[in-house]
Fold:
Amino acid sequence: MGKKIDREVNPEKVASLKIIQPGEQPPCLQPGFGFCRGCFGWQNMLDAALRGDPVWKTTQIHCSETDLTVTFKK
Structure:
């Protein structure tokens, strides 16, 4: 059984996302889904960007299943 992780959402950080290509919610965000082939996991990419990782903070985060693409506003 998976471990439940509680995360606080900082509205300022969520508001800093810019949608480049609209799309549905990535399937990997569904409980128990796991990872898509060739993807680091949507939440993992967002978490890395929010921690300040220079690569993820400046790149476009894209879901190949739904075409949702976001970046962080500068």
Summary: The chain has a mean pLDDT of 79. DSSP finds three helices and three strands in the chain. The helical segments are 11-14, 42-50, 54-58. The beta strands are 17-21, 61-62, 69-72.
